Structure formats: C-alpha cells, structure tokens
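S., here's the first fold you wanted:
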Amino acid sequence: MNLKKKIVWVLTDGSQGMLSQVYGLANHFSNNIVNIKTKLLFPWSVIQPGFLPTYKWIFSNPLDLKNKPDIAISCGRKSVYLSIFLKKILGNKVITIHIQNPKIKFTNFDYVVAPNHDGISGYNVISSIGALHQFSHNQIDLASEVFPSIKNEIIISIMLGGKNRHYKFDYQTAINLIEKIKFLKNKYPNYIFLVIQSRRTNNKIFKMFIDRLKNSALIWNGKDPNPYLFALKYSKAFILTSDSTSMISECAFTQKPIYIFDLPYKRRSKRMEKFHNEFNNLKITQKLLDNLKLSECNYKTLDEAKRISVILKERIVESKNESR
C-alpha cells in the first residue's frame, strides 16, 4: 500500500508542542498533509470528550469535507472531538491515530500512540519513549547559522522551559540556575554557554538571565531568528529544565549529553517522575551537578516518530489485507 499520496489531516489546538508531534508522525506517512486547527464552541471547548455528542456545527473552524482525509492524526483534548466526528461520518474510509492519552475509550480510535510515562495499554495502543517530534537529521543539518562566529566553539546550550501545572519556575529557582551557569563558566572558561528561552518562559524570569549572565553567556534576545535548530546542530551538550518532555525528547535525537536542571514541584507528579527515571535509566539524561562530560553518549538516537510510523504502517497494511 502506497501511503505517500494519501491525504493526512493533522488535528491540534495549534500549540507548537502538539504540532511537532503530529507532523513528526505525518511526515513519515505522506507528502499531502493538511493542518487543521481545532476550534470548539462552548461547552465542548471546556468539557472533557466523551460526555457530549459530536456534530459538524460544534467546530467554529470550517472543515473542507470535499477533500476528505485518508488518515487523521490528532493530539490534545480538543482534537479528540474532531477525530471522533471524522470517524463518525467517514467510518472505515479514514484511519484515526491519536497521540497522547485521550482519556476516553481507546476504541474511539484506530490507534493510540502514547508515551510510556502515560502508563496506558491496549490492543491498539503503541507506546513511545518520550514525545514524538518533527525534526529530521536533514532539517538539523540545514539549520541556519544564527551565530556563525561561535559554531566552531564548544557550545553548551541551556534551554529554559517555564512553570506548568507540575513545576514552579520562580525567582529563587532562576537564581539557582544562574549561579550554576556562572560556576560552570568559571570552571570551563573556553566554553560558550548559549541560553535560549521558550514560549513558556516568563519574561521577568528571563530578564534575570539577561541581566545576571551578560558576562557569562550568550543569550538569545527572543527577537532575532530562533537558534533552536542551530543549538541542536552545533552544541556539544545541553542543559534543560525538567518541565519539558518535548525539549528533552528533541535533544535526545542528537545523541549528545543532556543535563537536567530540576525545577521544584508544585505538586509531585508520578507521571513526570516516571519520564525522568526512564530517560535516566536509558542513560539519555543525567542530573546537572558540577561537571560537564562531553564524551560520546551510550544511548541510541531517539527517533520515535520514525520507529512508530513503521509499526503503524505494518498494522494498517495487515488490517487492510484482513478486511479483503
């Protein structure tokens, strides 16, 4: 079965983390990808899927059902509604794949792809190590040289996340990380420390890094082109805050050392603890202490989107053959 010409709809709420996951998988299926940002009317917009029925009119964004999808890949709560609706009207003419725990019956989808730390299982569930992402080796190799003057230096990239429902990233936490970076710069004066913020990094917190590290680090100002891919390509190692499974999974694609700076918990999360234990046991990550070892890592390149796409293609072909 040739899937390259199939129409694939990717369904998300538009957030970058979800887009990276659905595109990461979709790119291995087809070149014909349609991005659908799911917008729901109230009360569907606030109620967990499974309690209310689905109709076309609950979506405030237009749906071009003349060009029906052959495959729908969804991620996130809001996109669950659209995936269920497409299955309702198209039946076996569409293959539905949901990424992450949908928190409703898995039988609502043909396949569910969820990370090991979600702790779910089922006959149609395929488990991943960490989060899927859209990056390829070719994409990283072609990364624009945002900081050409340092590309041949020993670069340590520090990628900052932000607070979420599990973690705090407050004043004292920022001070602790800033002091750690200063300590490492004094210990390794020839290293270039590149600090990159994310969309979730609080502006006031990030200004602390700008003000206090101006003599110790190179800091992306948030206005010039994003150096994220540059960092993936040229960094010798990464220092990442513990809140982002996506950033950690993406950096694990490079097979370079990853050091985790633990943010304090708002409330203990067994799910996040399971994620970090898994990556630590696989020797992908290690806690940030007082040393940086830049030797080759023992872990394999983490390319879960590619691995899982192979499994899904095999299952789809088997299912089609059985239905004949």
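And the second, which I think is the more interesting of the pair:
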Amino acid sequence: MHPHSDFQLIEITPKKHNVAIELAYAGADNFTGKPVYARRFCYLHSDAEKRFRRAMELAAAQGYGIKIFDAFRPSDAQWVLWNHTPDPDFLADPRRGSPHSRGVAVDMTLLDGAGDELEMGTPFDTFSPLSHHGNTDISPEAQRNRSILLGIMSAAGWDFYSKEWWHYQLFDSRRYPTLNDDSLPVGMMPPA
C-alpha cells in the first residue's frame, strides 16, 4: 500500500488542465542557481486541484491563461531551498512545513491571449518588498495585474501570502500533512 494513499496528489499537466507549466526548480534559472528537482512533475492535492480548476475558469472568462512556477514541493526540496536561503519572509521553515510540501500551494502568474506573462512588477522569486501585495512602488499596470490575479484566486477559494504576489495556498493549509519525495510514485528529487 502506498504510504500516503489517503493523501491524493493529482498531476497537473498542460494537456489535462490547459495551463502552462515552467517549474522554476527543475532548471538552474532559480535563486539557488542549480536544479532542485530532477524530474518535472507538477502536483496538487485533490482539494487544491478543484480550486485551481475554478481559478482557470475565472481567468479564461477574462481572456487570461495561467502559468505555474511551482506547486507540490517535497519536504526534501524545501530543505534544499531553506539551506541555501534561510529567509522566513520568503521561505517556510521546513521544520514547520510549507504549504507547498502539503500539496496545497501554487506559485503562478497570468498569461495574456498571446501566452505572454502579464507584467507583475518583479519576476517570480524576487525576495524583495517590491514583491509584496499592495506595493505601490511598481507600475500601475503591474499593480492592476496583481489585483486581477488576487481577485481570481480569492474568488476561486484561495488564500494569499502578503509578501509574494505569485503564492497562493488553501486556507487552513496546516491541516494537510507534509510529504517527502518518497511519497510520490516517481520521485522528483535527484538521487541522494
């Protein structure tokens, strides 16, 4: 029996979900400068996947698409990120558990009709006050785009993190257990 058979992770794919996926930690273009994941799998808990589908519907109704930068992040990966940059403003301490490691968080942005990312004022994973929701030191266009994303995700039942415009998680995320890489049918992490 699978060690977490009661904890349903659903793979998110471009084909099944009509979403762009560019997992930041599966390549070297992230704040660590090296790949954290060996395999490019994108998962959400079934509760989060339902709300994510609703967010996609709301975005599409306004002419937008969605791009995912990260979703489920094994606890093993959270340790890699934390050991590189132990900043509690932008990374969850792995001893407490991240909503990502519970499968109930997604890092994302909106795409326009041509498939280009909307201007959000900072790139994903910019560890700066400019990434905070409500920051008025970014362009009015970026402020509007963040507000659109926040509105879509809030209407779809997601909570937000005030210091990262890209991060959304389910309310009460700590009621979900954290999962390691060995919880997956095929692991995401490189061999130890």
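Why I say that: The domain at 9-183 is CATH 3.30.1380.10 (Muramoyl-pentapeptide Carboxypeptidase; domain 2). Confidence is low (pLDDT under 50) at residues 1-5.

Talk tomorrow,
H.
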